Amino acid sequence: MKREIKTTNDGSKTLFINDLNENYHSHHGALQEAEHVFIKNGLNLINDCEINILELGFGTGLNVLVTINEYLKTDKNHVINYFSLEKYPINESEVKDLAYFELFDNPEFKNIYQKIHLADWEKSVEIISGFNLKKIECDFFDLKNIDLPEINLVYFDCFGARVQPDLWEKPLFELVADKMAINGLLTTYSSKGSVRRILQELNFQVEKKQGPPGKREMINAIKL
Prior knowledge:
Radius of gyration: 16 Å
Keywords: Methyltransferase, Transferase
Domain MnmC-like methyltransferase: 142-223
Pfam families: Methyltransf_30
Organism: Chryseobacterium contaminans
InterPro entries: MnmC-like_methylTransf, SAM-dependent_MTases_sf, tRNA_MNMC2
CATH class: Alpha Beta
Strand order of the largest sheet: 6-7-5-4-8-9-11-10
């Protein structure tokens, strides 16, 4: 897929896929979208001492970085195991041009950013003490064949239904639900009525939340 770098309204960058006419992130702000959807309405709502996160998909690695940034604000008496699926990894040039470490004041973030992207696929790598990352190169529907611990938190960050409608239908949500612990949380930028109904059918308690800038609503769903 041909991709190009674009700058979003909050100054952070994203990738744009010409053939699909689709951004990896909201043009209103890549960073503020990630922090609002996956940190404020995701990670910050989980209190387990060991948090297993499943991300669909890895994309530019921004969600990993904002998760580490939030983890460093805590007393770090818990462990995060982060599992991220991606079918089309970005290349070295794109990693360099995105330069997400520049968005954070912490001088260690350049090294952390590089370590995230240099981490071998299919292997669990300790990025910082207490934070383990495993990147898995696969189609999302291969999830059924992937051995994971019970997942406490899902970052459902697939491309939009306009370009990949099959990723927002029941079969994939069933696969995700099967990997989740009871009371596990799924958070996504989407607020589609069909997604809410699917999740309710799969025995999730679904709540509409205020969306990130530029989007009125988003979804949180707790597995019952």
